[in-house]
């Protein structure tokens, strides 16, 4: 919609190789850091990964932390949001624009290397690796491409894989989960070095800013938020797509372009976002300021219209279950609170729960997590309670709204997690109850202190083994249950008979994979 910038040329070819990219955008000349910071300030460039942090401040923070030492530029292409496709689209179809922005920043900072982190997309990873190889070949044949080394790293995909701390840990070869304590990448990131970390679209926008200059860059969009944005539209849209549009575009116009059914509402900002009612959608403007006025946040540009044929409350419950399954499992709010929220949401769907019960569960996780995941989940659930008030009343009165849960909200299809069960040797068990103290969510004690067990998800296998090892009577052992095969995308939450949340569609434990095959390039010396 409007002038094509990030998507220029993609109407003529499926992927822009290096010659096509250079024909469109030319060769980006190195710039002084002060000039780049000034340009970013002039247009108030913000990160496009969701947090909207000022990019100029990131550049300055890394420069200050680096001093005369080394730094790293890290491109976050590991979007874990099932409803977002914009980063994968850029890396697959227009990788050189992303690389231009990253290399431009690396040269200005004197960075040691550029690292491109991708997750869950072999095609995107292969496209970026091919782009790196194209630049190397161009230099070998006498071209003038940058010689900053570029490394492509594939990591394990999950909802939290794109969180900054989790991404840095994954690139460093550790488990890709958020650190318990906040650590700024600008001071200590990849290999402990000051790291400029931003997402794929941000670097592509940065390359365009350098190409156009602030005045031309600001010719479209709003005065406060110039330029274009990438939007992923899915769900109830007849024509799901990644759309480039000027900031200030009406949300209703984007939905009309994709022939979307709004239904009971539109989700803005992804699964840590908020719901807008059909009435608000008609006047909502797509910009940070416009979304704030509408009661939402633009986030990473995710737009999911619900449509008219599915149960809105059931869809929200599916997402709450998915978010509970996608936690790192390293703090109480994630291990206990998020499954409680999912169960309370499904009780609402069945007409047996209450809104107050859901709100109590939400209060138990807000501002208590080791990362933002519990707060983001709480925001999504509270927004759903407000947006679907009428439908909730129908479920509580009749047990249903009369519509099935069609799985309209995007959900990844993954192999089901292994599960474990605790088994007890009753000739040894003396009813100490220590196992229930160590695993309270999976062990119940009867009136005599003897245990009964629920299945333990794979991401808590370590804690279950600890309970086995610490049993004073040596009465416990841990056995793996038979897997259930792949979880279909869009399937509702599966509950075991005793009501314990099963991790539907997750892949844990999260073992970081750093690719080392032909799709990965670390290029130095003669190429970028």
UniProtKB/TrEMBL annotation:
Region (Disordered): 507-528
Named cofactor requirement(s): [4Fe-4S] cluster; FMN
Any one biological process term the GO annotation gives: cellular respiration
GO MF, one annotated term: metal ion binding
Name of the protein: NADH-quinone oxidoreductase subunit I
Organismal lineage: Bacteria, Bacillati, Actinomycetota, Actinomycetes, Streptosporangiales
UniProtKB keywords: 4Fe-4S, Flavoprotein, FMN, Iron, Iron-sulfur, Metal-binding
Family recorded in the similarity comment: Belongs to the complex I 51 kDa subunit family.
